[in-house]
Write a structure and sequence with these properties.
Distance between the termini: 34 Å
Helix content: 40-55%
Radius of gyration: 26 Å
Number of helices: 13
């Protein structure tokens, strides 16, 4: 039996694109979803696409979600592709999360954390029951009130300031480089600096990082930290134009920041302290920020000691966390590999002939 390549061409590809557009639109009797609706009502999906797509633009992220039919890794791919077309003017100054206008801030370690616990918008205490009123009229009545309280947006102390008077929390080392490592322009390098590592984790797939964090908590990495603080809010972005020579505020972004802490017994030259893992994402992405912080802490442990689990292996984690890279490498297998298949086919046929010849020789010798 002969195996031959299937022939196709530009017409087939054009028709496939047209069919895809029809499937994306669905039943034309139903109203088409507007980008603004996706931006406002699927905000957590939008935030994930912005974070892993490395592009802070809610409208573009919502458009990518619509175009990709809700396939978030595909939307992230579209966002990154568009990002490569944008001009670059330089690096902004580091954002000051201590000055974040906080809308949500909780700590699982400190009940009476300075600044207080601010519950904010969260699924944590919902019953996880389907709300069929959303299917009926799109609105959910708020029990006991006509509307939710206004968010309290104000700066409040960070977890570092809580420990400052006793020096119980390790301090971050200042980097001497003028600009951070840019993973979008430079290839991955090992051992990775913390700026490269955190950038890779910020762009990493939420599900992959979540699984690694879970594995670490279950003993595959010996990192079972406490959530010292997680906060959501807006921070100002500042930039120093060459022609001015001083910083100006160019806008603000919504960020989720998480700091996980775990104990360190210290050593001869180091007093016992709490060490920390750090997570920072665009938008409201708590699960991602928490997973990122746990993995960051595990990677730091793996760098200081011999890695004993996948989550501590820097190359394994950073090389495989990117869903655009992973998706491309897996999905390319459905594209034409006719030459590879013909080579494998010939190899298998030759090996079968040699196997049959050996069996015949053994049978003849036995007789």
């Amino acid at each position: 039996m002969a195996y031959v390549a299937v022939k196709g061409g530009e017409k087939a590809i054009t028709n496939a694109h047209r069919w895809l557009a029809e499937d994306r639109r669905g039943d034309t009797a139903a109203p088409e979803i507007e980008v603004a609706q996706l931006r406002e009502q699927l905000s957590l999906a939008v935030d994930r696409v912005m974070s892993e797509g490395s592009c802070y633009d809610r409208d573009l992220a919502a458009l990518a979600i619509k175009q990709s039919r809700g396939d978030l890794p595909e939307a992230i791919f579209l966002t990154r592709a568009y990002r490569t077309t944008l001009p670059r003017f330089g690096a902004s100054l580091p954002v000051e999360t201590a000055q974040m206008a906080v809308r949500r801030r909780v700590s699982a370690a400190f009940k009476d954390i300075p600044g207080g616990q601010v519950l904010g918008p969260t699924f944590d205490y919902t019953h996880r029951l389907l709300d069929f009123t959303l299917a009926a009229d799109g609105e959910t009545p708020i029990d006991g009130a006509t509307q939710a309280d206004e968010a309290l947006a104000y700066p409040m102390p960070t977890i570092a300031s809580v420990f400052a008077h006793e020096d119980l929390l390790e301090a971050d080392a200042r980097t001497a480089e003028a600009e951070p490592f840019d993973l979008t322009r430079e290839p991955m390098a090992f051992p990775a600096g913390r700026d490269q590592r955190l950038q890779a984790l910020a762009r990493g797939d939420e599900g992959f990082l979540l699984s690694l964090a879970y594995s670490s908590q279950r003993g595959w990495g010996s990192t079972h930290p406490l959530c010292a603080e997680i906060r959501l809010g807006e921070v100002a972005v500042e930039f120093v134009p060459d022609e001015l020579g001083f910083a100006i505020e160019i806008g603000e972004v919504t960020l989720t920041e998480c700091q996980m802490i775990s104990t360190d017994a210290g050593g001869v030259d180091k007093a016992p302290q709490f060490t920390r893992g750090y997570g920072l994402t665009f938008g409201h992405c708590e699960r991602k920020a928490m997973s990122m912080a746990i993995v960051d802490r595990a990677l730091r442990d793996g760098a200081a000691n011999e890695a004993s689990a996948p989550v501590q292996d820097e190359e394994f984690v950073l090389y495989h966390s990117d869903n655009v890279e992973a998706s491309g490498f897996v999905q390319h297998l459905k594209l034409p590999h006719y030459v590879d298949f013909q080579a494998d086919l010939q190899l298998i046929r030759r090996l079968r002939r040699e196997h049959a010849a050996r069996e015949a020789a053994m049978k003849e010798a036995a007789e």
